[in-house]
Specification:
The chain is built from 14 helices and 13 strands. With about 375 residues, the chain is α/β, with parallel strands linked by helices. It has two domains: about 220 residues, 3-Layer(aba) Sandwich (Aspartate Aminotransferase, domain 2), CATH 3.40.640.10; about 120 residues, Aspartate Aminotransferase, domain 1 (Alpha-Beta Complex), CATH 3.90.1150.10. Helix 5 links the parallel strand 2 and strand 3. The chain binds pyridoxal-5'-phosphate (PLP).
């Protein structure tokens, strides 16, 4: 048998196979349970998952949907975002955050991020408020909650709702409680690479008010509460029973997985030299969806890691206001912290089962790549 040298052992950005193996039987049993029941849409698994999610997030209502994108679409629609409305949102996020605003005929108003936390700030949002502002849409980027206190205060003063994009932050928290359970609605993604991951597309919306929860449920199901009676025009944004059954298996381990991510992050912090580590979260509730460092020599570091079989990624190489889809509308806009982040960030491998030896090796390689 050939002995592989350390240089040949690849370290992926995340290792879905390693995470699957220990729970394989439970997941396959959950899928079989649904297939045996032949009940696939809005059944007992979805009900149970919604109850369990609202328990974990300590929120009144959890409404599952078919993806994080649909969570944003349905939540924005439920809160009255439509043609003519403006929604203030950070330019540094995944495209879906802004794309959903546009798909409803509204306009995303892009604002800059804080260069240390990578999150949007109340000051930036305040400067972008206008009489047409219909919602504020902060993103808890990389698993760190945005600083919600001043954002909520600003929203109250202007009487506009806050919709949280918590797609990367399940389990994170700020002073007010769980990220994604603080504003009028919170949107989560259970895309297979997220901290809570389905075996396909899946998502969820939180709501604190019963009436809003009813609207969200209705909109995810063609605006219908009662069979063949449609009060509004909605979508088919339902989560299916198979995804719900699998998510229940993983939700039971979410805290354990997030704690393991924090341990990996802690090891990185001890060992990394020469690059700027991510902002520390004094509350200890960063869930490290990504471990994102900054360096002026980002590209050289990334290439050195790649030569050693270590995957590192750039989230995101282009702020949204610079994307071709938005460039014409944002011509002349300068959002310097986001533009600088796009040129300097690097997300290093992180997942709950990443071992210390791999972290140490990555850190050594990073250090060696720097002058
Ligand atoms: C993943 C993600 C989404 C979209 O979720 P999908 O489930 O892929 O539709 C939206 N916003 C952010 C910040 C994300 O990371």
């Amino acid at each position: 048998m050939a002995i592989r040298t350390p240089a040949e052992i690849a370290v992926p950005l995340l290792d879905l196979t390693a995470q699957y193996q220990p729970i394989r039987t439970e997941i396959l049993d959950a899928i079989a349970r649904v297939c045996d029941s032949q009940r696939f849409i809005l059944g007992p698994e979805v009900d149970a998952l919604e109850r369990e999610l609202s328990g974990v997030l300590e929120c009144e209502h959890a409404i599952t949907v078919s993806s994080g994108t649909d969570a944003l679409l349905v939540a924005l629609m439920a809160l009255g975002v439509g043609p003519g409305a403006e929604v203030i949102t950070p330019t540094y996020s995944f495209f879906a955050t802004a794309g959903c605003v546009s798909r409803l005929g509204a306009t995303p108003v892009f604002v800059d991020i804080d260069p240390v936390t990578f999150n949007v700030t109340a000051a930036a949002i305040a400067a972008a408020m206008s009489p047409r502002t219909r919602a504020i849409l902060p993103v808890h980027l990389y698993g760190l909650s945005a600083d919600m206190d001043p954002i909520l205060e600003l929203a109250r003063r202007h009487d506009v709702p806050v919709i949280e994009d918590a797609a990367q932050a399940i389990g994170a928290a700020c002073e007010h409680g769980a990220a994604g359970a603080i504003g009028a609605a919170g949107c989560f993604s259970f895309y297979p690479t997220k901290n809570l991951a389905a075996v396909g597309d899946a998502g969820m919306i939180t709501a604190s008010e019963k009436k809003r929860a009813e609207t969200l449920r209705m909109l995810r199901h063609h605006g219908s509460r009662q069979t063949y009676l449609h009060e509004r025009v909605g979508w088919n944004s339902r989560l299916d029973e198979i995804q719900a059954a699998v998510l229940r298996v993983k939700l039971a381990r979410l805290d354990e997985f997030n704690a393991a991510r924090r341990r990996v992050a802690q090891r990185y912090r001890q060992k990394l030299k020469g690059v700027q580590p991510p902002a520390e979260d004094a509350r200890g509730r960063h869930v490290y969806h990504q471990f994102t460092v900054r360096s002026d020599r980002r590209d050289a570091v990334r290439e050195a890691l790649a030569r050693d079989g270590i995957a590192a990624s750039i989230f995101y190489p282009m702020p949204l206001h610079r994307q071709p889809a938005y460039e014409a509308a944002s011509r002349g806009t300068s959002l310097p912290a986001s533009e600088a982040a796009a040129k300097t960030v690097l997300s290093l491998p992180i997942h709950p089962l990443l071992d210390e030896a791999s972290v140490d090796r990555i850190c050594a390689r990073v250090e060696a790549a720097l002058p």
